[in-house]
Amino acid sequence: MSQATSTQIQLAARPTGWPTAETFRTVEVTYGDLEPGQVRVANEYVSVDPYMRGRMNDVKSYVPPFALDETMTGGAVGRVVESASDDVPVGALVLHQYGWRDVVQEDAGGFQVLPEIPGVPSSLYLGILGMTGLTAYVGLTTIADLHEGDTVFVSGAAGAVGTAVGQIARLLGAGRVIGSAGSAEKVELLTSRYGYDAAFNYKDGPVREQLREVTPDGVDVFFDNVGGDHLEAALDRMNTGGRIALCGAISQYNDTERTPGPDNLANAITRGLTLRGFTLGGYLDHAPRFRELMTGWFSEEKIAYDETVVDGIEKAPQAFLDMMSGGNVGKMLVRTGA
Amino acid sequence: MSQATSTQIQLAARPTGWPTAETFRTVEVTYGDLEPGQVRVANEYVSVDPYMRGRMNDVKSYVPPFALDETMTGGAVGRVVESASDDVPVGALVLHQYGWRDVVQEDAGGFQVLPEIPGVPSSLYLGILGMTGLTAYVGLTTIADLHEGDTVFVSGAAGAVGTAVGQIARLLGAGRVIGSAGSAEKVELLTSRYGYDAAFNYKDGPVREQLREVTPDGVDVFFDNVGGDHLEAALDRMNTGGRIALCGAISQYNDTERTPGPDNLANAITRGLTLRGFTLGGYLDHAPRFRELMTGWFSEEKIAYDETVVDGIEKAPQAFLDMMSGGNVGKMLVRTGA
């Protein structure tokens, strides 16, 4: 038993528009000896995710907003270094939601012991084997009702969720898979590494025109991470009976004024389209089936992934901002190295 | 056997914005003796419907556009006055899609013989017993997945579809039913005659504010006939897991420029909403079940209806325009009296 120092990032102020240096605060917390039932975990990786921007606002949402002057919560994986619980022993690899800190000490019930699979880095439990992969899977299957042969369009396709969506779509029998991303390098990766049949750089010109060129037969399923002009472009290209999974609208998260919606939503009437929004909270019961599928695909080397890793928990705010502006390929992670 | 003269309304020009006097043309057509298999029908009622505005444009849609310089097609009921077909005898009441004319002569295959039910006027086959009622039923059940106890909001609630939606929702077990309409008289009718628990006049103030006042517990199902600010207001009030049936967007049909969509579509993500557009073409298999239900309700006197009737086929264009600007209560019909 011993004391431990933990470096933590708190929400210091609710941002208007883009978060700034004033939004976050770094603090040192000293944990005392473990209470009965507690464990102490040295984090390995901490996740930064687009949905966190919404929680920085003080608005009612599906999850409560982040509390001011408290440590940012969110997904993280680490290893148990001290334990006063039989259920979560020293040495166990654990997943938790205590977020942006290098060391955490809490009741054992807040930690999920992970299997240790040879060849599977712990970071994957924050990525394709975790919420990221599950988001892609649920969005394609339950939300967008993917059918064999469907043409699938994915916005923000080089991000953590997008790279998973393209591959899962293909593995589940999609016909053509199309993606958009924000740089020539990402576009190249989509077709060379992530199984996309075609991709375009949305900064090269109007999304509406670029999407039309690469979807001569229209789109059956649109998996939207971006919103804005991507959603508008897709609504123009959707085939009759098409399904749109509304997963994210990262293009709008830092808007300070209300942004008008797509000018062609009436296409949903004439074409019989379904737009369905989702967050993962209501679909966690799909996790076992997903993990079984994804672990299988992974062991068969059918899954590629990228991670953009930033070292040091004090860099978490910058990692978050980089991710929001598209500075990542695949999953954005903070390596804590506590 | 004899000749017959028919007065018909043709589409003379595709309108930009609101249709005008130049949009339509009245012509006299002379039918000769019946060919084998043909019938001649004297129409009783001709339907004018909001969807027809979309078909006046020359754009690809779920149904082809109206042909220029041809008679406007659409629902009508009439009586067979001459017949060269055993299947459709003289005197039969028939439903057909030959539209805006007082007399029609075509192959018998284009006419559906209707049952003659005591106390059921023929006009109802264009209204609550016809496509109008079926639209309400399919939208509530198949599209919006109505559950017992749901709070239902209906825009354009005093129109043909809206008056049916409120009553069907209540008969199927909805909790609270809320409607909007465009005049004080209509609002009064909604609560006094059509089973709405609350209603408001959308011309009295911002829909967003008015809707908030009458939906303290939010909205589970929104049946949208109007689009625009109604859709935006509803998106603010939808409960988690809510369903929106996109049936019409009459507020936008005559727009000459692209209209921005709702500024709060991202609520669909955080609240897990489903927006589903539909037209009836794909759901005609629900008609038998619907007719059985609705005929039963009607005979039990559980269904109220209104019709706004204009006399004379040459008045069809004006009836259509009046309907588009809200001049009707319930179903808008042209009585041909051929």
Automatic annotation (TrEMBL), chains A, B:
Alphabetized, the UniProt keywords read: Oxidoreductase
Supply the source organism for this entry. Answer: Isoptericola sediminis
Query: Which CDD domains has this protein been placed in?
Result: PGDH
Membrane-crossing ranges are none
The entry's protein name is NADP-dependent oxidoreductase
Checking Pfam families in the record gives:
ADH_N_2 (PF16884), ADH_zinc_N (PF00107)
Transmembrane as a keyword?
no
Q: Which GO terms describe its molecular function?
A: oxidoreductase activity, acting on the CH-CH group of donors, NAD or NADP as acceptor
Q: Which residues form the Enoyl reductase (ER) domain?
A: 20-334
